[in-house]
Design goal:
Largest sheet: 5 strands, antiparallel
CATH class: Alpha Beta
Number of strands: 5
Helix content: 40-55%
Number of helices: 3
Shape: globular
Order of helices and strands: HEEHEEEH
CATH topology: Beta-Lactamase
Oligomer: single chain
Length: about 120
Amino acid sequence: MDSVLDRVFALSPDIRYVARLHGGRLVSAMRPNLANASASESDKYEELLVNPTLLTLASRRGELDCGGLEYLILRYGSFFELVYPAPGGHLSVGIEPHADPLALVPGVRAVAESLGA
């Protein structure tokens, strides 16, 4: 597995899924035996299409008069999704629905910044 993904998984047992999109190359992994896991094909298109689009839209809005964009947190029915911009792409972290996604932001930020963010 990609060392970046390993570093993110090491942050908490509440992390279900990690993906890194960098320069058009997608690497991802999920913890085994997850309840309510989404389909890998669905995850692929979320990382290649949905998350980059959301980051672009929110970044442009943030640059107008909000001080920029740091990250996005989405709440789906079965999990949270933390999407953090990183050089050449993003980190995407699926988080258990009972966890506090804000508590994981500093660790994900540290990993993203180590990539040159």
